[in-house]
Amino acid sequence: MDPISSTVVIDRPREQVYEYLADIANHWEFTDHYLREVHMTREDTYGLGAGMRFRQPTPLNRFDWAELTITDMEAPRRIVQKGRGGKYNRIRMLSVLTLEPSGAGGTRVTLTTETQPRFPSDRLIEAFARGPLKRRQRKALKRLRSIVEEGRERGRRATIAGGGPRKPASQFRL
What we know:
Number of helices: 3
CATH superfamily: START domain
Number of strands: 8
Strand order of the largest sheet: 1-7-6-5-4-3-2-8
CATH topology: Alpha-D-Glucose-1,6-Bisphosphate, Chain A, domain 4
Shape: globular
Order of helices and strands: EHHEEEEEEHE
Structural class: alpha+beta
Helix content: 25-40%
Largest sheet: 8 strands, mixed
CATH architecture: 2-Layer Sandwich
CATH class: Alpha Beta
């Protein structure tokens, strides 16, 4: 599918916006209007290798689970996330966040999302999902702008898959 791009200008320094976006657990704060059941794939949610698994309900799609992992970072310019989703995880996904300086200390954030469906049935489902995804992505960037500019970070955060104690038997006292 052709890439979908959305852009927003945030009135904060590029380094501050980059630091916020480099922690993948923060993405849940501005995408919770269309991503469901978000879980982190590891304890350390910052930087290379950090990832999340989520459901992205779309029309006509029964297989709405997907996973994204940060695979490349160029501070403070770009964050690349790669993943898979759909039936048997056969649809490749690529998401690129590009940060550029914009005017008096602002930052222009561009989110580009691309998928590579394998079969004609996957392409059909992607065609139905394209319009809603573009609207949701645009809304997510507007929400990102309000969160970063107002400084209301660390509100709603995703959990780590498993949900239990991280150390064996750490809840028991002897």
